[in-house]
Write a structure and sequence with these properties.
- The protein is of the alpha+beta class.
- It has one domain.
- Helices cover about 35% and strands about 15% of the residues.
- The protein has a four-stranded antiparallel sheet.
- Strand 2 and strand 3 form a beta hairpin.
- It is globular, with a radius of gyration of 17 Å.
- The two termini are about 30 Å apart.
- About 20% of the residues are buried.
């Protein structure tokens, strides 16, 4: 029984080291820059710096950059177009809110991965 416990503990901590970093962000943090119909979303950096927004309620993911859109189109991930959850920009008619602040925040996750000794392609 002790061997099983130690083995499972080892597996648990091994996978934590290679898990992709995900950051939860909220409307409160971004104020008027908030671009999503949800009050809270998660940001994720994947292989090749593909950035995704995840709805924590449904776990549906939305591509946040061109690399992620490419993965979606090639059926490498199951995702829905980002426009589904983007708010309209109240200051500019017929335009959606800018996603640039969220792309920058998600890229920090990619940078954290590389600075921790893992490249974003090693996932």
């Amino acid at each position: 029984m002790k061997r099983v416990f130690w083995f499972l503990s080892f597996l648990f901590f091994s996978f934590q080291g290679i898990a992709a970093p995900i950051q939860t962000i909220s409307k409160l943090q971004f104020g008027k820059q908030w671009a999503f119909t949800r009050e809270e979303v998660m940001l994720d950096c994947r292989s090749g710096s593909a950035l995704f927004v995840i709805n924590p309620s449904t776990l549906m993911q939305y591509p946040l950059n061109d690399r992620a859109v490419e993965m979606m189109k090639n059926n490498q991930v199951i995702a829905t177009p980002l426009s589904t959850i983007l708010l309209d920009d109240p200051e500019h008619r017929n335009r959606k809110m800018s996603i640039e602040p969220f792309q920058k925040a998600a890229m920090l996750l990619c940078n954290d991965q590389t600075s921790n000794g893992k490249s974003s392609d090693e996932k």
